[in-house]
Amino acid sequence: MYACAPPSSYIPLKLSPGIRTSKNFSSFRLTMRDFKVFAVASMNEAANFIPAAPIILPQGPWKEIPGGVTAANGFKAAGIYGGLRAKGEKPDLALVTCDVDAIAAGAFTQNMVAAAPVLYCKNVLNLSQTARAVLINAGQANAATGNAGYQDVIECADAIAKLLKIKPHEVLIESTGVIGQRIKKVNIQCPALLVLFKQILINSWNMQEALLSSLPKLVSSLSTSTEVGDANIRIGGIAKGSGMIHPNMATMLGVITTDALVESEVWRKMVKIAVNRSFNQITVDGDTSTNDTVIALASGLSGKTPISSLHSHEAEQLQAGLDAVMQGLAKSIAWDGEGATCLIEVTVVGAESEMDAAKVARSVASSSLVKAAVYGRDPNWGRIAAAAGYSGIPFDQNKLRILLGDTLLMNNGQPLPFDRSTITTTTTSLLSRFSLVSQILYQGNGTGGGQAWGCDLSYDYVKINAEYTT
Predict the structure, then answer these.
(1) Is residue 469 annotated as involved in ligand binding?
(2) How far apart are CA 460 and CA 172, in angstroms?
(3) CA 241, CA 220: separation in Å to the nearest integer?
(4) CA–CA dist 408, 44 (Å, integer)
(5) Cα–Cα distance between 71 and 235 in angstroms, integer?
(6) Which residues does the record give as substrate binding sites (predicted)?
(7) Active site residue 251
(8) Which of 68, 105, 259, 452 could disulfide-link 302, Cβ–Cβ 3.0 to 4.6 Å?
(9) pTM of the model
(10) Does 338 appear as a known binding residue?
């Protein structure tokens, strides 16, 4: 376990719990084109069907509850197999709906080759403050597909809008899959959408596996309840990611939901802050995808007075809860990067600002040499110092303090002797599947702090990505 801490502060590190267990959910066949629908009472019950990643929910005045993206009042979800995948019959089409006009916000990839659904969602959110549905497909990224791909998105939104009897601009679209392939809109449209729609009407059905791409990908689901002012609100979410994960934004699709009552301008600012503290702080391989999208919807069904100021006490409470849910999802995604064996968590304290701390943390978490050292169980703490040093954020190296487990390796910029065999043995015992490697860096006397998450770099990563389309 790697750790760095300030001279006067030793930070206790805890290993995260292992994989949760829960009941299997059932599946049954429909008569319409042999669609498969997977039914569950809650998102957590899918854990034995889809390998679950541990959720590390930050400590705070909230509690984890079942329901995932459907935990908040007003939301329903469904997932089916619609025939979009090149092979297999895993669910590949998902739908999240809201009973009312939900205040909508979005965060997207900064890749200049942005997918058609990304461009579409940006345009919609520029024109409208609310949304009622999010349609998600796997199999085709619909990226680098030109005007024809964009038209496909419009037609899919129109189709779902007719079924839900809402306006087309109230439907948002997310896609994942192989770049350069247009979405199979013939498969998505009737009867696939009709099947989704019927399941939404019957109950709230599991959509978790429908977010999976052509290769096994991690899908994480999390929901919490917390007090905001005099109201008890719920925040839930589901997110998918694996490889091609790097800040701006980490490669992923996500839907966040809450029943908090909040004004549009405030909600969009809060979502941006939370994304910067979570999904923009995870990295697996340094690649930024074309399709990264997080849609956040607020139904307002549990609130009494709308949150109208970002600086109000209620806004601070909601921001903290939103940060916690997104960070829990982000860490679980980074935890199960392609071929990964463990999570790397980097915490930086003593920086001049939160932004500075976040940048240094990302630099260390993104380092291929640090990732390789963790995979090889090599206590090469110098790679941590080097990665912090080339982050672009100036700091006094004579104030750097580094610990590996309980062993002090550097104090005030000076290396100290240590027993390599003892440290290697301890580190190896901790670095098992679903373990946590914590790195804490102290830079100076500032008040800024930040975190970033990544995973080790293994031989399997090369194998998985070498065979992605074959």
Answers:
(1) no
(2) 35
(3) 9
(4) 40
(5) 7
(6) 240, 251, 338, 465, 470
(7) yes
(8) 259
(9) 0.82
(10) yes
